[in-house]
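Researcher: Here's a chain I'd like modeled. Treat it as a single chain, no partners, no ligands.
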Amino acid sequence: DRAPTARRPRADRAPTARAMTEDEARRVRELVHRARCVMLEPSCAKKAVMTAETHRWWFGDDDDATTTTSYAREDTENVVDDPVREISRVVDPGQTRRIGNGGTAQSRSAILHSLASIESWAMLLAWDAIQRFGVARNMPKEFYDDFVELAADEGRHFALLSRRLDECGVVRFGELEAHDGLWRTAKETAHSLEARLAVEHCVHEARGLDVLPQTIGKFRRNGDEASATLLETVIYPEEITHCASGLRWFKYLHAREVDGGDVGEEPETEESGVVKAFHEIVREYFHGALKPPFNDEARAKAGFTPVWYEPLATKVHAQ
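Model: Modeled as a single isolated chain. Structure tokens:
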């Protein structure tokens, strides 16, 4: 199982407007095909392996010995609207059972299971961005670079959390119920890349930054240092880069489609056009107000200053 491969060092890639070469366009078509193959694979564990393989292929790190999957499918011509998943115990987000504060082995395993499920959905969200929006919105190569990297991170997080779940010996992944809240949001934003970036990456993933330190504390206080270290040293810092990617591409699209130029380097204010557009989209697609307290330090590392999120902590009522 090569899914938990180390992530590549990633620079803060500045999006460009240059046209792709013919070879780059061909590789993008193959990437979209592979993305749809991942989404149509039933096994979450196999999805993670295919994601790692495709990451190595995209960045030129693979050879015949590292690829074990056949991508010879003929049903990838159209957008995959719903991924195939073998996990059957899916419940409404509002009906999930309480998983506790980590004081028992069962509670800690339930937390790990919930986190693994979230990461498995996040992996598919990255692939969906590529297969649904990449070509349709004429996105540059750096967009694919970012989202292949993001998918690989999430797939590796899933594999590491699943492995840790096995080590704890209480349950295996798929044996507990899980909700599909992230994918429900994905379906609501399936027609708009801007909405997808704003809600999934700049709201949901940023919320993860707010609550992960408390989750790490639950494991550490109850003697599970291995789980605490995994979250603290691998997953938490990498999730910051995912929020940064969402914000970077939201700003890119606003500059390209609305401002007709490059992303500005001046600090945004609450009156900036891109910030106002972000607020409007979040209020339209996110149900309710954002919940403080916010992890300002982690959000700042992702490029979020308070002007992006603090105004959204108050629900605006329609007149």
